[in-house]
Amino acid sequence: MSSRSLAIIYVIAAVVAVAGLAEATYLTLLNLLGETAVCGASQGCAEVLGSKYAKIGPIPLAGLGAVAYFAVFSFATFAACGYARARKFFAGSVFAMFAATFFLLYLQAFVLHAFCRYCLISAALIFFLTGVATVAPIASDSRDP
């Protein structure tokens, strides 16, 4: 894979991470303001985002997601510039987010029996980023010291 096509893949991953960051920030702000997410006729968002699984102590999971998406955005940006170490951090972060997403989807399906549209969109973004992390090579590059 040429360095130019690899850079384009990581730029696309950075854009996807920004979309996830925007969504997670929105959900975090809603949670901190005590508002409920608007999901249309479905009540799944209120059930999922209002459940005991939506926070770790006082911290909303969406806030942790926003931090994770920002990290992935940063790593993807550096990886697009050719830094191999950033590719490794990108892959590690994305795989950790994938594991968390898989667990949260399990909770929605088998424990809460409700699905949040925002959570499903975030899961789709994570699945895409996981595909990028799986396909993109993590070979070393000359820009790393």
What features would you highlight for this structure?
single chain; about 140 residues; mainly alpha; two-stranded antiparallel sheet; 5 helices; 2 strands; about 70% helix
What is shown here, in short?
This protein is an all-alpha fold and 145 residues long. The protein has five helices and two strands; from the N terminus they run ααββααα. It has helices at residues 3-33, 44-49, 61-80, 84-112, 117-135, and strands at 55-56, 59-60.
How would you characterize this protein structure?
By secondary structure, the protein is mainly α. It has a single domain (3-135), classed as de novo design (two linked rop proteins). The protein has five helices and two strands, in the order H-H-E-E-H-H-H. It has helices spanning 3-33, 44-49, 61-80, 84-112, 117-135; strands spanning 55-56, 59-60. It has a two-stranded antiparallel sheet with strand order 1-2. A hairpin with a 2-residue loop joins strand 1 (55-56) and strand 2. Helix 1 (3-33) runs antiparallel to helix 5 (117-135) and helix 3 runs antiparallel to helix 4. The longest helix is centred in the first third of the chain and has 31 residues, at 3-33. The chain is elongated, with a radius of gyration of 16 Å. It starts with a helix and ends in a 10-residue tail after the last helix.
List the helices and strands and how they pair.
Elements: H1 3-33, H2 44-49, E1 55-56, E2 59-60, H3 61-80, H4 84-112, H5 117-135
Antiparallel strand pairs: 1-2
Helix pairs in contact: 1-3, 1-5, 3-4, 4-5
Radius of gyration: 16 Å
CATH architecture: Up-down Bundle
Rounded mean pLDDT is: 91
Give unreliable regions as ranges.
Answer: none
